[in-house]
C-alpha cells in the first residue's frame, strides 16, 4: 500500500509542476519579439515540464514494480487478507487496477511530451502522432478498468472514468488541431477547416458533459476553454485563407488521424531501490 501511495504522491507533485508549466502558458507563445523575461519564463516552464515527466515515469515504474514483482510475491505467500474466504484487495492492489494506473501515468507523461513538442515547434505530424498516442493510452487504461473481476474490489468511481474519457478526448482534439496544420501545409484548407470545426464541436460537447456532471470541477473546464480559444483563433486564420487564397469548400469528411506514437516508457525501479531518501524498500511489501 505504501508504494501505491508513493506512486500517487509522485503524480500529485507532477501536477503541481504542470500548473506552472502548462496552465500559465509559455512566455512568448503568442509571437512577437521575445524579451529577457519571456526567455526566463520559457526556460522555467520547460524545466517544470521535464521534471513533471520524470515524476510521472517514476510513478508508472512504481506501479509496474507492484504489478510485476510485489503482487505475485504477496499472492505466493498467501498474505492477502480474506473476507468470507474471498481474497480481498483494495483497488490499488488489484493487478488489473494497478496496470490501469500504470498506463494512466504513462498517458499523463505522454501528454507532457506532446506539450513539449508543441513548445519546441515540432512538425504538425509529430505533434499529432504524440497526442494520438496519449489518446490510445488513456483509452487503454479505461479498458483495463472494465476488466476488473475481483469480486471484493470496489469498482472505480464514475468520476475517475469520466476523467479518463475527458483526458482522451482533450488529446484527440489537440491532435485534430495539429492535423489541421498538416492539411494546411498540403494546401488542403477545406480539410484543415473541417478538422478545426470538428475540434470545436467536440470541445463544446466536453464542456457540456463537465457542466452537467454531479461534481463539476473548474479544473476540468479550463483546459477545454483554453483549447477552444486556441482552435477558434486558428480557425479564423485558416478559414480566411480557404476563402480568399485557396477558394476551396469545407470538406464534408474529416480526414483520418495519423497513427498514434507512444514515446514514453515507465522508469526503471532502480531509482527506488537505490534511494535511501525514499525510505521505501521491497521488504515492506512482502
Mean pLDDT: 84
Give the class from helix and strand content and strand pairing.
mainly alpha
Cα gyration radius (Å): 21 Å
Oligomer: single chain
Which sequence of SSEs, written as H and E, runs from N to C?
A: HHEEHHHHHH
Low-pLDDT stretches are: 23-34, 276-286
What key attributes describe this structure?
Serine Threonine Protein Phosphatase 5, Tetratricopeptide repeat; mainly alpha; two-stranded antiparallel sheet; disordered C terminus; 2 strands; 67% helix; 286 residues; 2 domains
What's this entry about, in short?
This protein has 286 residues and is mainly alpha-helical. It has helices at 2-21, 36-76, 95-119, 124-145, 158-185, 189-212, 218-246, 270-273, and strands at residues 82-83, 86-87.
Architecture blueprint of SSEs:
Elements: H1 2-21, H2 36-76, E1 82-83, E2 86-87, H3 95-119, H4 124-145, H5 158-185, H6 189-212, H7 218-246, H8 270-273
Antiparallel strand pairs: 1-2
Helix pairs in contact: 1-2, 2-3, 3-4, 4-5, 5-6, 5-7, 6-7
Can you offer a commentary on this structure?
The model is unreliable at 23-34 and 276-286 (pLDDT under 50). The chain has 286 residues and is mainly α. It folds into 2 domains: 1-25 and 38-169 and 259-286, Serine Threonine Protein Phosphatase 5, Tetratricopeptide repeat; 177-256, no CATH class. The protein has helices spanning 2-21, 36-76, 95-119, 124-145, 158-185, 189-212, 218-246, 270-273; strands spanning 82-83, 86-87. Helix content is 67%, strand content 1%. β1 (82-83) and β2 (86-87) form a beta hairpin. A two-stranded antiparallel sheet has the order 1-2.
Amino acid at each position: 500500500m505504501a508504494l501505491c501511495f508513493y506512486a500517487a504522491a509522485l503524480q500529485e507533485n507532477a501536477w503541481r509542476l504542470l500548473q506552472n508549466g502548462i496552465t500559465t502558458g509559455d512566455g512568448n507563445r503568442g509571437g512577437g519579439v521575445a524579451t529577457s523575461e519571456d526567455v526566463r519564463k520559457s526556460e522555467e516552464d520547460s524545466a517544470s515540464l521535464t521534471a513533471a515527466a520524470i515524476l510521472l515515469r517514476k510513478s508508472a515504474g512504481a506501479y509496474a514494480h507492484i504489478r510485476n514483482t510485489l503482487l505475485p510475491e504477496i499472492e505466493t505467500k498467501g498474505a492477502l487478507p480474506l473476507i468470507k474466504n474471498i481474497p480481498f484487495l483494495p483497488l490499488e492492489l488489484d493487478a488489473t487496477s494497478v496496470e490501469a494506473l500504470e498506463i494512466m501515468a504513462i498517458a499523463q507523461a505522454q501528454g507532457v511530451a506532446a506539450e513539449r513538442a508543441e513548445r519546441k515547434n515540432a512538425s504538425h505530424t509529430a505533434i499529432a502522432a504524440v497526442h494520438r498516442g496519449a489518446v490510445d493510452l488513456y483509452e487503454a487504461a479505461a479498458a483495463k478498468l472494465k476488466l476488473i473481476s475481483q469480486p471484493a474490489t470496489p469498482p472505480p468511481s464514475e468520476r475517475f472514468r469520466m476523467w479518463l474519457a475527458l483526458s482522451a478526448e482533450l488529446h484527440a482534439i489537440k491532435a485534430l488541431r495539429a492535423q489541421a496544420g498538416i492539411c494546411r501545409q498540403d494546401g488542403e484548407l477545406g480539410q484543415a477547416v473541417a478538422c478545426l470545426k470538428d475540434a470545436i464541436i467536440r470541445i463544446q460537447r466536453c464542456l457540456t458533459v463537465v457542466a452537467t456532471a454531479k461534481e463539476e470541477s473548474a479544473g476540468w473546464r479550463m483546459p477545454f476553454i483554453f483549447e477552444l480559444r486556441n482552435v477558434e483563433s486558428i480557425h479564423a486564420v485558416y478559414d480566411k485563407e480557404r476563402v480568399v487564397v485557396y477558394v476551396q469548400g469545407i470538406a464534408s469528411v474529416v480526414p483520418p488521424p495519423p497513427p498514434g506514437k507512444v514515446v514514453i516508457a515507465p522508469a526503471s525501479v532502480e531509482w527506488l531501490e537505490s534511494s535511501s531518501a525514499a525510505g521505501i524498500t521491497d521488504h515492506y511489501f512482502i
